[in-house]
Amino acid sequence: MLWNAIDKEQVLPGQQANGVTSELATNLVKYGFTVVGIGNSNIKSPSSQILRIGTGDFDVTSDLLKDFAPATYNPSPTPDVFSGTIFSGNNEIDFSATGVDLILVVGNDYLSFEGK
């Protein structure tokens, strides 16, 4: 799952924040990743991160994701990271019901990431 956590108020001239996660999802699918959903985070973040939700070992997958986003891997996120819901259009999404293993939170640092 991808969460767009870019703070549009912090976007610099020439940077585009709209459609970032859709474009990233298209690239990830092209390279064999499964993207089960895209949404907007209710919390804005200056930095991107990969949050492990599943119970498996996702070290290799998180390393591969770092080729697509400047993310740090958090294998043991605290429950407060997941407080509330994310939003996709007008529909609220309950993250706990999505059945995902990893969430890639796309923060402001993605806008200047050279690997995208």
Could you explain how this protein is built, in words?
The chain has 116 residues and is of the alpha/beta class. It has one domain (2-112): Alpha-Beta Plaits (2-Layer Sandwich). The protein is built from two helices and seven strands; from the N terminus they run E-H-E-E-H-E-E-E-E. The protein has a five-stranded mixed sheet with strand order 2-1-7-3-4, with helices on one face. It has a two-stranded antiparallel ribbon with strand order 5-6. The radius of gyration is 13 Å and the shape is globular. The protein starts with a strand and ends in a 10-residue tail after the last strand.
Would you summarize the structure shown here?
It contains two helices and seven strands; from the N terminus they run E-H-E-E-H-E-E-E-E. By secondary structure, the protein is an alpha/beta fold.
Record the SSE blueprint.
Blueprint: E1 2-4, H1 20-30, E2 38-40, E3 49-52, H2 59-65, E4 72-74, E5 86-88, E6 91-93, E7 102-106
Number of helices: 2
Radius of gyration: 13 Å
The CATH top-level class label: Alpha Beta
Task: Let me know the largest β-sheet.
Answer: 5 strands, mixed
Do you know the CATH architecture? 2-Layer Sandwich
Helix content: 10-25%
Roughly what fraction of the amino acids lie in strands?
15-25%
- Give me the CATH fold name: Alpha-Beta Plaits
Give a count of the beta strands, DSSP E runs of length 2 or more.
7
Shape: globular
How are the strands of the biggest sheet laid out side by side? 2-1-7-3-4
Number of domains: 1
Mean pLDDT across all residues, rounded? 82
Please state the structural category: alpha/beta
List low-pLDDT spans.
none
Report, as a whole number of angstroms, the end-to-end distance: 17 Å
N to C succession of SSEs: EHEEHEEEE
